[in-house]
Amino acid sequence: MKKLQLTAILLTALSSAAIAQPQLRKDNIDEVIKAMTLEEKVTLIVGGSRAISISGVPSGTTDLVPGAAGVTRAVPRLGIPQTVLSDGPAGVRISPTREGDSKTYYATAFPVGTALATTWNPELVTEVTKAMGNEVLEYGIDVLLAPGMNIHRNPLCGRNFEYFSEDPLLSGKTAAAYVNGIQSQGVGVSIKHYAANNQETNRNENDSRVSERALREIYLRNFEIAVRESDPWTVMSSYNKLNGEYTQQSHWLLTDVLRDEFGFNGIVMTDWGAKQGTVKSLNAGNDLMEPGKQEEMERIIAGEKDGSISEETLNTSVRRLLEYIVKTPRFNGYKFSNAPDLKAHASLVRSAAAEGMVLLKNDGVLPLDKDAKIALYGVASYDLIAGGTGSGNVNKAYIRNLKDGLEGDGMSVEPSAPDWYAKYIAYTETTEANSSGRSVFWGKPVLPEMEVPANFINKIQETTDVAVFTIGRNAGEGSDRKNAAGDFLLNDTERTLLQNLCDAYHKHGKKVVVVMNIGGVIETASWKHLPDAILLVWQPGQEGGASIADVLTGRVNPSGKLPVTFPMAFFDNPSSKNFPYDYKAAKGGFFGGSKTPVKDVDYTDYEEGIYVGYRYFSTNNVEVSYPFGYGLSYTSFEYGKPAVKAVAGGFTASVTVTNTGKTAGKEVVQLYVSAPAGGLDKPARELKAYAKTPVLQPGESCTLVMKVTDGELASFNEATHVWETAAGAYKILFAADVNDIRCTADYKVKKAISRVL
Ligand code: BGC
């Protein structure tokens, strides 16, 4: 009798457990986990996309936001909604039109990542990404797959435009400012691609071989800053291997470093492509497989059954996913409008992009005289490149070109060149589109430069005061750029056009301005002596033409500084000998086609270690074309007497900056530190802090104060696994760029400091 009763009780308990259906709330996550079946847990861990249907389990995948990159899947029984993930990073990337719907869903194309970093202005970056985050929210998206924040290791990485800088501090601070802006809107980000994903060639399989010191001081340091200073909801692990292991399967990278050391407590998701070792990924701390495949579900279920995944591991990832889900607007029932204020955002894009431009050269021609009549050359003047290609491409409603921008600022553009360019572009666009067959995903291919006969130039010269020539470059996901004419180098058409313009205009005492509308560094040393002014505008977003015009006409005084070095030549760059600049040489190894691993394709040795960018150039006194941190202004600034004051755990550095010119403007002060000799081998100087003044009127001053901790002066000792701050006298350099030290002060660390990991 007793036995029967017990069985009955057990059965009732079991069946009620089987039908336990708590509905997810912020405060019942554990209860929900308890109620979940194995299949339901796996439904969460393996994401979805509208392209992938997974049978046998509640798919929960509907096309909530057409064109979004992926979703986390729903478990309706427990009140767990699907959430939506979308690219990123220069704005929301969704389909601009929908079937059977006459409304449009364009998003704002913001300045690319490198342009944002060029502002050296975290407050501005946050203002921009607040607007971007509002578009994320209002288009019904929960996570923006951004920012891209890999280090610019080499100028030819095809995705550098998405990324911020060659310096981890500038990259990390810009990333934190970016994330804080987006997340202030109640939506999340996925900082990517973690880590050492510094080339596109064979990006799925390439093994980045990096010393632990270089990882910790350069390639992980920016992620660390972003995690500590902005608490991103998610991190995206990269495709590549790191020192022999896929990053998405590296426990050391995803758990020991990211969570235990940096304090990350959100979700890690894969980049868009599963690796074989789903179980290993999960055990490593990669919580979400995107966009998800049937096999991955099966692997996890099998893994749970054979014990290679513990219940605890499974539940930990599920808990993180649920903690994420309860934060999302979709869970919280936010009624998105599908109608963000694109007009207001466009005007913000216009001013932010102008602050992300760098005046590289100015022999008195800029700002342009307001009555100057302009001869406007270069295909990109009329077909501006707002952003790069690949998943970083944004479907925007329009791009303002430079002609319209100049005219909008009241300038007069000579009409026959525009006419020629319009015809050329219309014709070439059709032939290029036909031959390249590129889809919207990749964005528009850049059209080849138009050849302009010298007699045409000479004739137009007679009726104009100045020539402006825009050089355009584009690149993006999936391939790296080339050290070749038309890419890193100017091609013959561009060189001839530049030479002919300079000949024609200089002969009559008139000037030539070059505008560089590029996504990554190009060679400048061989031609920069020709024009009278050079303005680097990067890929400035959809209002680019207006932003450029604002700088050319002086409506905006340029205050951007280079976030990356422009070397004299490609091979001056320390990473160039270990970079796939010419992957013809690597044929056979591409995509693992060869049995013998091919250098720079199957593996890449980061032989330069920590000597990335200016850390190499300044330590070895290698001449550069434009140094890191460089940028001119229409006014001049004087730095006063600097002060360095020891405070608890570090020092504050302050300096008063005065506008000594005739135009209002902003200045960025960069604080580099030179360490005393004797400790670990160190770069000649390293950026440790920076600050930007507000707009200073002529004669006006402002004191900038920057704080540095002793811990931030440390280098990583690989032998002992200790962060070491050597004792001794540190030189504190107050600089306008890495080579332009305006004043110095001393700081003493009395006793060596060690931080043991
Ligand atoms: C890219 C990611 C992107 C994802 C989703 C991948 O190929 O590397 O940056 O977020 O696709 O579109």
Q: Structural class per helix/strand content?
A: alpha/beta
**Biggest sheet features:** 6 strands, mixed
Distance between the termini: 62 Å
Spatial arrangement of strands, main beta sheet: 1-2-5-6-8-11
Query: Which blocks of ≥5 consecutive residues have pLDDT under 50?
Result: 6-13, 51-60, 585-592
Total of DSSP H or I helical runs spanning 4+ residues? 20
- Name the average pLDDT: 93
Note the beta-strand portion. 15-25%
Shape: globular
Small molecules in complex? beta-D-glucopyranose
Q: Let me know the number of strands.
A: 31
User: Could you tell me the radius of gyration in angstroms?
Assistant: 27 Å
Overall helicity: 25-40%
Structure overview:
This protein is an alpha/beta fold and 757 residues long. Helix content is 29%, strand content 19%. The protein is built from 20 helices and 31 strands. The protein has a 6-stranded mixed beta sheet. A hairpin with a 2-residue loop joins strand 29 and strand 30 (740-749). The longest helix has 21 residues, at 416-436. The chain starts with a helix and ends with a strand. Bound molecules: beta-D-glucopyranose. Residues 69, 87-88, 145, 192, 271-272, 391, 477 line the site of beta-D-glucopyranose.
